[in-house]
Sequence to fold (533 residues):
Amino acid sequence: MNNTLTMRILSQKLFSTVLAVAFIGLAITFAGCDNLTDFKEINDNPNDPTDVPSTQQLAAATTQFTYEVVANEPVRTPTLWTQQLAANVQGGGNIDVYQYREVDGNNLWEAFLYTGSIRNGRNIADAGLEEENFQNAGIGMVIEAYSWMILTDLFGDVPFTEAFLPDENLSPSYDEQEVVYQYIIDRLGEARENLAKTNLGTTDNSTADLLFGGDVDKWTSLAWALEARAHIHLTESDITAGGVSGRDGHAQAALDAAQNAFPNGNADNAEFTFPGGANAENPWFQYTIQDVWIVSQQVSANYIDLLKTNEDPRLPVQARQTGAVDADGPVGSFVPTAFDPTEDFAAADSTYRGHENGADQSQNIDVVSSIGSFYSDDDASVFWFNYAEVKFIEAEAQYILNGDAVNGDVEAAYQEGIEASLEQLGVISFVNQTFIDDFVQDRVDALNNATDPLEEIITEKYIANFINIEPYNDLRRTDYPDLQPVADGVIDNIPLRLPYPVSEYQTNGEKVPDDVPRGPQGGTVPVDWDPGL
Fold:
């Protein structure tokens, strides 16, 4: 998605008032910007508040993180590379053929993460500690840690230790991923400690906390889930973080954290629900369905084929039927047919049809499946994290600790992950319980009979995390699911990272790591936790 379009969306759509509030009192602190002092001086208005109570920051911060990060560039580009979605445009689409330019990452790096969710999370944490509102401090720490993880997973080494020091350092050095991951795990532990404390006075976050409605236990659970994700990322690396190292060490730490996460199953899902209506629509609705922007990013043919081959009942949830959306948006007269497993899973059936990644032609929008309404209605939810992922992390960790072999613990966690995903997506509305039971048993049999059971675990996790950032992380570190690079891509491999943005070369060029080529060629170099091609 180009930067002009991104900024048009942000300037004209979604919670304009709330998003404006997000930046009251937040210092402009771009990493590597050479005019920060001037920004600081001109924005120092004695008539405006510079300290905003932590509770008043929560709604804006959770909205900004959801809209600009969880359902924006950190996911929209990788979903093309993991072939869950495809760009249905003439020439195959620049990003679908790995033509990710330096300019494409500017907004993500600067506005969405560094001066967006990282800064917002840290400001909430600092304000909460000063107020002795420890629970808000913990929430801010979770948002900050999550944001750092997304940043370093996408870019590798990033300015960290010397970032956010505009009065001291306008040219911050880059830290290795090990340093950033140590902070992430420490910060999540600090978050849980604060969430467990009693606030000085009573604070009601039931309306300010748009993610969990003030439920501190769920924030604590999310912190455990993120720690599990962090450790599973490091299993194939030589990174030491959280006091552990090595494949088994990180697998055990991931397992321990996962077993503390989401004790209430799907009821603990980190689910941000958009109210819908003018200026409050779900971002995937705006981006892929609504005719205000574009409708060219649709479900990949590879993904549709995978669901059909497995006779997966998530197909009618994750994809709309062809004809439901055209170039002008939703087709008001369209009436979907009842899902029919005896016909709709057939390879030749066109009820559900994907677009080939990198295909050098566009198809009429109405003959290709758009993202399912579960994810892309105007009032649909965006999931920060789901219970199914917790169970697949547990399954992978158990698999590693059992000597790369399946045992009862691996099988149980794997099955629970599939069942959690089916429950979350409400597939019982499309098929009966017997069909669901048979499908689950087929997948368990596939696990037990697989040449490489890890492929089954990661592939099921890939489906459960549809249009989420995590399939891209899993693909890079495990090479699963088994995907082929697009034909005629500008590099020969599925990109292994995002290139550093042009803004860093312009303002902090001497500090940008020189072992990562500029532009699309940067995608040939793995990040530190990635074992590589």
Observations:
- The first helix runs from residue 3 to 12.
- The chain has a mean pLDDT of 90.
- The two ends are 27 Å apart (CA to CA).
- The beta strands are 85-87, 158-159, 174-175, 270-273, 297-299, 325-326, 329-330, 381-385.
